[in-house]
């Protein structure tokens, strides 16, 4: 490692390891900040788009989202019911086999 005056400064391996660890921590934090910055930019773009929309556009968007949510809930209920029926049938088969 080079000192400020231009000379060479020796450091032990523990100090070197800590320097590398700190450097890696800094890179990790910077990557997190970059990711959050991109997410913030995306949110700001969405806000600008929503600000330009009329009330009717917002109502239509809400209606579409509610329809999607209801379809999703309906599918999950169907899957859940199917799993229950299959488990009950499996239980009946096990009882018959015994």
Word description of this protein:
The structure is a single chain. By secondary structure, this protein is an all-alpha fold. Helices cover 85% and strands 0% of the residues. It has two helices and no strands. The chain has helices at residues 13-52, 55-97. The longest helix has 43 residues, at 55-97. 0% of the residues are buried. The mean pLDDT is 85.
Low-confidence stretches: none
Helix content: over 70%
Helix-strand sequence: HH
Derived from helix and strand composition plus strand pairing, the structural class reads: mainly alpha
Name the average pLDDT: 85
Radius of gyration: 30 Å
Number of helices: 2
Q: Which geometry do the CA atoms define?
A: flat
CA distance, first residue to last residue: 76 Å
Percentage of β-strand residues: under 5%
Largest sheet: none
Total strands: 0
SSE layout and pairing:
Blueprint: H1 13-52, H2 55-97
Q: What's the short story on this structure?
A:
0% of the residues are buried. The chain is mainly α. It is flat and about 85 Å long.
